[in-house]
Amino acid sequence: MKLRICGIRTLWDTTGDGEFFCPGCGGDRNYRRLTGRRRFAVLGVPLLRRGTTAPVVECAACHEHFDPETLDHPTTTRFSAMLRDAVHTVALGVLAAGGSTSRTVLESAAETVRGAGFEDCTPEQLATVVEVLSADIGQGSAFDPAAEACGAALAIELHEALEPLAPHLAPTGRESILLQGARIALADGAYSTAEREVLTTVGGALRLRAEDTARLLAEAARTPS
Asked: Is 26 left (phi over 0), alpha (psi -120 to 50) or beta?
């Protein structure tokens, strides 16, 4: 075995920890956030400073190092919750746009929300939530048609629920959320103007192109339920 006399050695300091989605393991793991100090070492003994290294994230299971941007990816548990909340918020937006007066639409919305993970959701619960949120006038954007269609509070909720999720979804996943909202709106007939405005806002928040959103809504309207 060849003895290494000298070289550069990195001394790692832990600056934080938590849980993340490890790209190497392919699942949720614990991590340590590390910063490194480079030292010139002789016979393994660090002597002279040679600067610092960029911070890294170390997986506690596989011990691989990743860029800190890896922490931007939600854990599996967090991603499931974000997806569930997104479907729930889209359903509320469609209902607030006029569907809450239709029992058929309420039942369709409740079924969709249960399928997303809220297993105890009922039409009555959704109607109550819509009523409460619709009473909150809030400060909506004058440039957001959804604010007028479903109320400022729900328009804000749509953006907050969908925009952080969109980068982590494949195009088919983003389209699926839009189409679930479309099927709720179509449960009692053609889209109303308000429902179409809400669904257009949903498409935009999901980073779908305007023409793709319009195409998907048209295709959903032509597809028998």
From this structure: left
Max CA separation in the chain (angstroms) = 80
The sign of the dihedral angle between the CA atoms of 59, 62, 63, 69 is negative
Nearest to 61 by CA among 28, 36, 33: 28
Question: Tens digit of pLDDT for each residue in 3-20?
Answer: 566 666 667 788 999 999
CA–CA dist 130, 24 (Å, integer): 42
**Over the stretch 91-116, which tens digit does the pLDDT of each residue have?**
999 998 887 778 999 999 999 999 99
pTM above 0.85, yes or no: no
Q: Where are the domains of the chain?
A: 6-72, 76-222
Q: Is 76-222 a domain of CATH 1.10.3680?
A: yes
Helix, strand and coil in the chain, % to nearest 5: 55, 20, 25
